[in-house]
Amino acid sequence: EEQLVESGGGLVQPGGSLRLSCAASGFSFSIYDMTWVRQAPGKGREWVSRINSGAGSIYYADSVKGRFTISRDNAKDTLYMQMNSLKPEDTAMYYCAAVRHGDSWQNSKYWGQGTQVTVSS
Predict the structure, then answer these.
(1) What residues does 59 pair with on adjacent strands?
(2) Long-range contacts of 26-30 (CB under 8 A, 24+ apart)
(3) What does the pLDDT look like over 15-68, one tens digit per residue?
(4) Residue 60 CA to chain centroid, in angstroms?
(5) Which end of the chain is more exposed for a tag (fewer CB within 10 A), N or C?
(6) Using CA atoms, how far apart are residues 3 and 39, in angstroms rounded to an integer?
(7) CA gap 72, 79 in Å, rounded
């Protein structure tokens, strides 16, 4: 069974940091582009970042550029997101997703269940 399992979310104060992880199983993780997507309460899903299969191409939404860093370890079938200088507006459920190269993130083939990030004092 194909699975993506996120972890690392939690409650953090503004300015703090968190590191999210996404463990993949049941499919060929290394051949997929991977994305992070978030959904704040009452809002639609928002694309955050994307990394291609070989980690040679990386993209960020303007809202997180310079604060978040996406990475992957294909030997461990794991995706990461280092989040620094967190702001209250970063509060959301964060999802990882596996997407075929060239496809839009909305058409991701596999999705995780999400991990909650709350930024509040």
Answers:
(1) 50
(2) 26/1, 26/2, 27/2, 27/98, 27/110, 29/74, 29/77, 29/98, 30/74, 30/77
(3) 999 999 999 999 999 999 999 999 999 999 999 999 999 888 999 999 999 999
(4) 11
(5) N
(6) 20
(7) 4
State the Cα–Cα distance between residues 51 and 72, nearest whole angstrom: 8
CA distance 37 to 57: 17
- Rounded distance between C-alpha atoms, residue 32 and residue 121, angstroms: 37
Look up residue 76 and give its DSSP letter.
T
Residue 95's nearest CA partner among 66, 118, 117 is 117
Q: What backbone torsions phi and psi does residue 120 show, to the nearest 5 degrees? A: -160, 150
Determine the residue type at 19. Answer: R
Torsion region of 29: left, alpha or beta (phi above 0 gives left; psi -120 to 50 gives alpha): alpha
- Residue type at position 59: Y
